[in-house]
Design goal:
3-stranded mixed β-sheet, 5-stranded antiparallel β-sheet, alpha+beta, 3 helices, about 25% helix, Peptide Deformylase, about 30% strand, about 190 residues
Amino acid sequence: MALLPIYNCYHQVLKTKTAPVTEFDAQLGKFVEDMYDTMHIAEGVGLAANQVGVSKSIIVIDIKYFKKDSDYPPLTLINPVIEWYSEEVSDFEEGCLSVPSLHEIVTRPEKIRVKFLDIDKKEHKMEASDYLARVIQHEYDHLNGILFFEKISAVRRTLAKNKLKKIRKGQISADYPMILPDGRLLKPE
């Protein structure tokens, strides 16, 4: 079990589009396991590889932390591409392990179709709706250098400005190790 430090939303690794995975080996398998461990310890439902400092197109999801009654097993998406978004949208409060203590309402399509590879390099296509679709979209945005608070209204961003400044400076800590924008490690108190 490995706990990887999570990168602060203002670190450059989270503002850069990730590269596709090309090597499907034991090292990839170990890294994906470490991502799941980190996500579970941090009490998240999704995690993108760049959130732990690796600029590769990998997402892990386990929504059972939030939705105990979910029958979705943990899901690993490598090199995902969202091929279709529904026209129907919904609002829901989102948070992010890279943005501790900030929660805001985000509007997203209710349904998507995503193509991805699994850990064994097998291609899959699946349709997702509701909460799972939202989590996939949130993590997919990370792979493209987009943070959830960039999708909220200008008024809400203005209201969140002071909290975001404190997050940038490391004045709001998390219950897990975090790498600040300047590369310093902030340990939980």
